[in-house]
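sanity check this fold:
=====
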Amino acid sequence: QVQLVESGGGLVQPGGSLKLSCAASGSIFNIKDMAWYRQVPGKERELVARFTSSGIINYADSVKGRFTIARDNAKNTVYLQMTSLKPDDTAVYYCNMVTLSFVRRDYWGKGTLVTVSS
């Protein structure tokens, strides 16, 4: 059974920084993408950043230049370094992993809350 466990969320002041981590464990084969999404109440979950197996990185326009995604394939871990945080970044952040063997499978963490407030 595959599990994704996020850590690193919390309360931070505007302009501050946080680093999220997500470690995957279990029977994991052929990881394709690792990504971070976020969601606020009443809104759809949105992609924040994605790191594909071929090395392509995508960011949401709202976080470009402020957030950095990194991936450690040896540890099956993905990170999200967040800087210059704004109140609009407040959300539950979810880790996502896509594997592709014969079929595509999506795995999700339970989420970690990031609150940006003074």
